[in-house]
Input
Amino acid sequence: MKNSGTAGVVIDKAGNEETPQEVEIKIDKTAPEADISFNLGTQNLETQGKDNLGSVQVEQFANNEILLTDAAGNTTKLLMKSEEKKEEKETEKEEKKKNKIEIKGIIYNEGQLVALAENEFEVQFELDKKTTGVKKLKQDIEIEKQIEIEANYNSKKNETKIVFKKQKDKEQKEKIINLVILHLITTKGNLRVIY
Output
């Protein structure tokens, strides 16, 4: 077998009158992909690994590298740039925070560095000091010459306003009831956005 996936194999010992047994063999040559989104619980941008055949271990290093490793040992390394800011207002009952990341490049299975289009994922949010819940959440993702998307959540209205623009298309607007979380996804060396 040369491709990734699953196949059934029949095993029978010669001369024995036993029922053939099937054994599943998984061959995985595909490196995992990354899914970056804002985590309400930790109030940070976080990376999860995605793999078509199993779970993915995520390790974050002090030098802004993130290593994703699947069960077969395939790896994806993200080279990142990140920034975090916190601002408290004494006169108000809220706290403002900002997280920003950029994926500079990706390395699949220790191969060549894949340079990416300039990109940025920025999250700004206000916390209610009494409930520590998110009061307002603004998420911006920009992938140069491809897409710009902004999602603004207001807890009073329980509504997310989304403004979306592809490279040469007109701006599109959408209102969605409830909180919407944007996801920046890697796919074979490219970036895309889902929500």
About this structure: The chain has no helices and 16 strands. The chain has one domain: 30-194. The longest strand covers residues 94-108.
